[in-house]
Amino acid sequence: MKRRVSHIILVTITVLLAACTANTRKHNDKQVLIYMDNGSPEEQRLEAFQDAQSISLNNIEYNSYITRTPGDSLPRVTDKDGNVYIDNEITLRITRENNIQIFNRTFTKNSFVSFVSSEFLQEAILERIVYNKTSTDGIEYAVSLCYPQTDLYMPIFIIIDSYGNMTLQTEETTEEDEHENTASQT
């Protein structure tokens, strides 16, 4: 009988130790999984983008080429939530008849440093440049310099004249210019 009781006690202790050890392993596995899930956030990037279109200015046909590429060599932008974004480089190239190049430049957000505050520039990315319109001044492109994944942006315009000269304007500048032009006409 003593043998049977000691045998039962031995089996009970073995089962209890095995149960405690199994719980410890599961608990450690959960900790490892949680640790791995809380790793550093993935960098977010916009897709590479290309656009080509024909534009007529003063009865001359121009070809506009816009290429956006994530700038892996550019500083990263981190928002207030800790999300990390890769900034972009955008190349604008314009040719006219016989494929004569009149303009070719690669822009980064630092190309527009004189139009925005350093605080805004530090948290913004160069999201896109798109053809906007033609005017007597030239071919106008709208620039979107913005906080990532928000509607907050600084509207800037690039105007290229028929000789390939570039002018940069903000929306405020163009409104002031329009106001001055209207005032001088009256």
UniProtKB/TrEMBL annotation:
InterPro entries: DUF4738. Gene3D superfamilies: Protein of unknown function DUF4738. PROSITE patterns: PROKAR_LIPOPROTEIN. Pfam families: DUF4738. This is DUF4738 domain-containing protein. It comes from termite gut metagenome.
